[in-house]
Amino acid sequence: MSWSSLIPATSFMPIQATEIAKEVDLLYAFLIIASLVSFVILIGGMTWFLIKFKRTSLDQKSAYITHNNFAEFLWSFIPLIIMMGIFYWGMVIFEKLRTPPEDIAAEIHVTAEQWAWTYRYANGKEFYSSANDPLIVPAGKATKLILTSKDVIHSFYVPAFRTKQDAVPGKLTQLWFEPKQAGEYIVFCTEYCGTKHSGMMIKIKAIPSEEYAAWYHAEKKGADSPADLGKTLFAQKACASCHSIDGSRIVGPTMKGLFGSGRKFADGSQAKADENYLRESILVSSAKIVEGYPPAMPVFQGSLSDEEVANLIEYIKSIK
Amino acid sequence: MSSAHTKTEHGHTDHNYLNHGSGIWSWMTTLDHKRIGLMYFATVATLFLIGGFFALGIRLHLAKFGAEPLLDPDTYNKFMTFHGAIMVFMVIIPGIPAFLGNFVLPIQLGAKDVAFPRLNLASYYVFIAGALIAASSMVFNQVDTGWTFYTPYSTSKTSNGVILLVLGAFTMGFSSILTGLNFIVTTHKLRAPGMTMDRIPLMIWALYSTSIIQILATPILAITLLLIGAEKTLGVGIFDPDLGGDPVLFQHFFWFYSHPAVYIMILPAMGVISELITAFSKKTIFGYRAIAYSSVAIAAVSFLVWGHHMFVSGQSTLAGILFSLITMFVGVPTAIKLFNWISTMYRGTVTFDAPMLFALGFMFLFTIGGLTGVFLASTGMDVHFHDTYFVVAHFHYVMVGGTLMALMGGIFYWFPKMFGKMTSDLGGRISWVLIFTGFNVTFFPQFVLGAMGMPRRYFDYLPEYTNLNQISTIGSWLIGLGFLVGLITIIHGILKGEKASDNPWGAKTLEWQTSSPPPHENFTTTPTVTAGPYDFR
């Protein structure tokens, strides 16, 4: 790892607050070296030829060389191999950035709007972003954010974590990170969102996990947790008349163990039941009909708010 | 350096395309591709000055030299939008094909004109109409979406001016398609006797590949822009999540055009560079076939990589990985071109006239632009750099460092042919030094700002980004000054330049075998081609 610190350009990178940030910077250092070498070969070679073959008299004659198959093969093939290596290296990091680990210590719904972020924790704690109210997460443990937006597309970017994800209205996206130690880290909005785009900044405050646990359970702001609210809603909307919560088969699939399970659909396709799948199935169930079930569920698009949908999802997640 | 042979053949008749008819009306109704090319030149240069004004405004604001910000946030966002939209849709996309391409393509092919001269003139007026419609959005209901018009911001959160801008871009798209069509037919049907497809100049190969992209990709943009208009006026709900639409769908549509459009911008520039390198090295181009086919390869792959603009948009991880993989393939034909150009200089006899300096500047800046493109093509790396100043620096190195350097080089190279006069070589060199230096001072710090995490399209920023932003702003004045010197050199050349010979650079392609400026129909006798385009033996 130490060789990468020899590359001055890496010193411009923000602090490495996660393990992945270190890995990203290693790739960055490699790319800087590879670029410098390529640049020296190309532009250095060019400059050398310019000096060596500068025209000095009028009757000078150029050589007549049309091509060289061997050289041309080499300078096509070698870059291709290098590019494939860079592609693979980037892909390995990308998959880590995109795949949250199994044990998530904090799961937070983050809703963007012009020009602020709102966070809702699993127990109903809720904040509106401000300079004094950073997003609180445990240090040394994984946090998963479930992002959406109320109006336009925003993007949640934490330079210190080298990660970024758009928050898209009408859709749930996710982002995860594991800050190595306690500290405060800046969050930018990076998708242009109007007048105060550049002012849409918050901080993430990572605190020791015991402290986090105490903070999380103290002074609840909301009356009920999203899952509790979702449970009430589940009853109100009579979801239970078609969906059991104990694993038994009635009109529709059971909710028991649904979250995270693999689904097979009538059209032969498959997907994993994540937040986005649940959201889509609640709002417009006909989008993906589970194999062996009738397309009987009514459309809830327009009659459920984003928050109600999020609450239902949290309840479904809790039915293990 | 002009050969006496060429001079005597064409004699000294003072009849040329510039004095073939006189009066403004003879220009406005001309069907001569050379005149139409010059009309594009005047138009694009004017638009470039307007786009440059907004650029300097943006940079001046970001330097924060005063206690009070120079612009308010809304004005800043509008400046940013106008700068991007003007430079992309009205300067860089039409610049080389419509201006230099129009002037050079038929003469290089040994043709009297393009295949459809009336359509060519119509394309020009369609372009003017589009530019006027788009420009009217600067006056009525100004737009602040950025040149990418992302939904749902553009459809539900901003002024109706976006309809005007989008309609303008839509209209200019027709001009682009018609010019591309005209070039393809001209290349296939009007080549001089003996000019087989493997004897056409590389500039033509580049314009030909560009034309294919223009014809295939521009309709996608047209449809996308119409959908924006429909969404905004009728609320059809294709992109609006409240109506069941998908806002990310817009990005797929938009980049399906706009990524290939990047190659509409850079391929013609590569064509110009191929001409300049061989002419000023006085040596046959190295690997003619490789350069020609790599243009076509770049055009083909350009359609398959749009998703690399969307690695963090919420598209699936697998899609991101596949787009990254395909994007890497673009690097290969690009590297092939660079190696071939450099090999062309090997054992040549190189001279450093102003056009060659711009070509060498292109090589330097485009190499940096290309290498940093690899950073962004790599998914794991791009997540950090996406939508930061690193991206801003990267695409300016490619588009300004690449396309505009080539455009300047091309102007100084073909100037004697266009006007029958020479520009001041000193003026060209001073312009080059200022633009080249200023460019690096402006945009290199932006790579560092991006690595530090500064997002793009920011009206304001953290204090730690201040110094680099100020350096960047100072660089932008050098660029502005450089283009000013360039403009003065060009105007001075037109008015007071020394008379140019038919072939001042001693180049081999057909446009140098006719008089400077050429007669109305390019050649007094149809040329016959017996060898490749760069036969410096």
From TrEMBL, chain A:
GO terms under cellular component: plasma membrane
Cofactor annotation comment: Binds a copper A center.
GO molecular function: copper ion binding; cytochrome-c oxidase activity; heme binding; iron ion binding; oxidoreductase activity
EC top class named in words: translocase
Cofactor: Cu cation
PROSITE patterns tied to this protein: COX2, COX2_CUA, COX2_TM, CYTC
Membrane topology, record value: Multi-pass membrane protein
Catalytic activity as recorded in UniProt: 4 Fe(II)-[cytochrome c] + O2 + 8 H(+)(in) = 4 Fe(III)-[cytochrome c] + 2 H2O + 4 H(+)(out)
Domain of life: Bacteria
Entry's family note: Belongs to the cytochrome c oxidase subunit 2 family.
Role summary: Subunits I and II form the functional core of the enzyme complex. Electrons originating in cytochrome c are transferred via heme a and Cu(A) to the binuclear center formed by heme a3 and Cu(B).
NCBIfam families: CoxB
Protein name: Cytochrome c oxidase subunit 2
Automatic annotation (TrEMBL), chain B:
Any one Pfam family match given in the protein's UniProt record, by short name: COX1
Classification via SUPFAM superfamilies: Cytochrome c oxidase subunit I-like
Annotated stretches, region: Disordered: 514-537
GO molecular function annotations of the record: cytochrome-c oxidase activity; heme binding
PROSITE patterns, A to Z: COX1 (PS50855), COX1_CUB (PS00077)
Main location: membrane
Transmembrane segments: 38-62, 82-107, 119-141, 161-185, 205-229, 249-273, 285-306, 318-336, 357-377, 389-415, 427-454, 474-495
Record-given protein name: Cytochrome c oxidase subunit I
Lineage, top ranks: Bacteria, Pseudomonadati, Spirochaetota, Spirochaetia, Leptospirales
